[in-house]
Amino acid sequence: MPEPAEPPLTALITGASSGIGEATARRLAREPNARLVLVARREDRLRSLAETLPAPTTFLAVDLTDDDAPERVLEHVQAHHERLTLLVNNAGASWRATFADGGYENVRRTMELNFDAVVRLTEALLPLLRTSAPSAIVNVSSTAARVARAGTGAYSASKFALTGWSDALYAEEKPHGLHVGLVLPGFIATEGFPAAELKARRATSWIVAPPERAAEAIADAGLRRRPERYVPRPYALAAAVRLLAPGLLRRVLTSGGGAVLTTKTGAEGQQEDR
User: Fold this and answer.
1) Domain extent for 198
2) Contact of 13 with 28, CB cutoff 8 Å
3) Cβ atoms within 10 A of the Cβ of 138, count?
4) Active-site residue among 104, 155, 170, 235?
5) Which of 27, 119, 232, 244 has the fewest CB atoms within 10 Å distance of its CB?
6) Which DSSP symbol is given to 144?
């Protein structure tokens, strides 16, 4: 008897118009029977990307912080697909500011995109993901969810929240055949996080990785159901130091090391990928 055909991979990727999202779309499009849904704000970028992918691809231009965004995304998926087997929550941004300068407003707008929008979209798509099981969610967090630096408190807060929520969601959804994976990138050179200051120095250029490395980690977490991946992997050491020697880490980050590793982000000079 012939083996049954492998069910298609139907994946939705947010923040897909550039950076890690774009690299993830290109990576997943190489999977057998892949079908993709790309979501971001810039329709021209999404259309151009969709036209170059080897897998059937649809796209939706929407700001994920809009009140009706989750409903619009769900309607788009249901109009084109019967199943959804992978949700990649990748969209996000950062605005650097100390709390004294940026205040609550900077925390609010960062949480709105990096955490609230993820939760709202996941809530809308959760029933479809459950009925499509085995399925997976991959939440793209950050090494900043483990180690916070001066000027990045709002971003770290949003990623700390995303990481904690992801751990709880994994335990809740495992009985339903829905895996929740977590990817924690370090410095990845993208439009939103160019890391130009680090790439300009020989001493720090080596710690910046290309978005394709993060895309492979997302595939690992989603398709191979890995629980957690740091990108690059050695960044896990920073999280370990925070737990084992928090005093040492604080001294390093307040003695000049933190300032060297705090870079300007794309969101501060242009529109971010939502």
Assistant:
1) 9-268
2) yes
3) 29
4) 155
5) 244
6) G
Confirm whether 3 is domain-assigned: no
Helices marked H in the chain — which ranges?
Answer: 19-28, 43-52, 69-80, 99-111, 117-131, 153-173, 196-199, 202-205, 211-223, 236-244, 246-254, 257-260
Averaged pLDDT for residues 259-269: 52
Residue 25 belongs to some domain of the structure: yes
- Please report how many Cα atoms fall inside a 13 Å half-sphere around the Cα of residue 168, on the Cβ side: 7
Answer yes or no: is 38 within a domain.
Answer: yes
Tokens of 159: 């990623």
Bridge partners (DSSP) of residue 37 are 12, 58
Contact 116, 70 (CB under 8 A): no
Distance (Å, rounded) from C-alpha 72 to C-alpha 78?
10
pLDDT at 6 (0 to 100): 62
Structurally, how many domains does the chain consist of? 1
What pLDDT, in 10s, does the model give residues 189-244?
767 555 555 545 554 455 678 899 999 999 999 999 999 999 987 777 777 777 77
Tokens 């259309």, residue located: 47
Tell me the two tokens of residue 14: 């947010």
Task: Determine, yes or no, domain membership for 15.
Answer: yes
Q: How far is CA 158 from CA 3, 37, 123, 148, 183, in A?
A: 45, 25, 18, 11, 14
Taking the CA of residue 221 as centre, how many other CA atoms within 13 Å lie in the half-sphere pointing to its CB?
A: 28
At 63-82, the pLDDT tens digits run 999 999 999 999 999 999 99
Q: Is 104 a catalytic residue?
A: no
CATH number (domain holding residue 69): 3.40.50.720
pLDDT for residue 134 is more than 60 = yes
Per-state percent for the chain, helix, strand, coil, to nearest 5: 50, 15, 30
User: Radius of gyration of the chain from Cα atoms?
Assistant: 18
Measured distance CA(16)–CA(187) in Å, rounded: 18
Q: How far apart are CA 158 and CA 154, in angstroms?
A: 6
